[in-house]
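Help needed: design a sequence for this.
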């Protein structure tokens, strides 16, 4: 992780955001999330929409993002993904944060708000497909989908290496939903990727895994294959 000297302005913004989070707290939302298995050390139940509004009132700041992340509240971690400067995000930071993920919400927020914009995005997505922790692999799959959806400048060939890594992941039923979403997004990106996904469906159908075959059927139905 980066070690940066603190500054008074960042501290003022940090404290201001903590006050706003408390003002928007919602115990019912927090309890509901916990009942659905989305747990955090501290969760004030603030809506993501309200967090996005808060973030828009501040300029991107790598230092502020690090301070927010280190607080380890649900809301401060999401704000960190919204306020960090993607150009300053390192592979070390991406690994450190991602290995600490404990639920789908923070994995998806980091992927959608920050990781896909960061220079190491493709490298980390490929690497995380081989991760030991479930949420690392989950983040990898979600990030691939986000890149396919949002990174319009990269050529389709950038996605080709992912297919080999997704074959073993297709056997994990806990990844089936996010895999299906990601592969449908990829198929809808272009004719080239649609063909790649179609070929991938064939690979899954040849698998000895019933989970992979079911995933292939669901993707095929979604893309009219």
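Sure. Designed sequence:
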């Amino acid at each position: 992780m980066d070690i940066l000297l603190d500054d008074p302005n960042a501290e003022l913004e940090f404290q201001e955001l903590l006050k706003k989070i408390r003002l928007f707290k919602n115990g019912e939302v927090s309890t509901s999330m916990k009942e659905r298995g989305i747990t955090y050390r501290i969760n004030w139940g603030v809506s993501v929409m309200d967090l996005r509004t808060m973030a828009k009132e501040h300029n991107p700041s790598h230092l502020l993002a690090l301070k927010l992340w280190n607080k380890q509240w649900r809301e401060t971690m999401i704000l960190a993904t919204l306020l960090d400067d993607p150009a300053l995000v390192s592979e070390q930071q991406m690994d450190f944060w991602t290995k600490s993920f404990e639920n789908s919400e923070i994995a998806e927020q980091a992927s959608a708000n920050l990781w896909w914009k960061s220079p190491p995005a493709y490298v980390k997505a490929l690497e995380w497909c081989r991760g030991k922790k479930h949420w690392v692999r989950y983040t990898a799959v979600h990030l691939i989908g986000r890149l396919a959806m949002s990174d319009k400048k990269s050529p389709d060939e950038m996605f080709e290496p992912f297919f080999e890594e997704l074959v073993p992941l297709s056997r994990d039923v806990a990844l089936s939903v996010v895999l299906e979403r990601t592969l449908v997004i990829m198929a809808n990106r272009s004719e080239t990727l649609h063909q790649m996904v179609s070929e991938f469906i064939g690979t899954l159908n040849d698998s000895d895994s019933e989970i992979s075959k079911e995933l292939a059927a669901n993707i095929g139905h979604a893309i009219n294959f």
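The chain has two domains: 7-84, 107-225.
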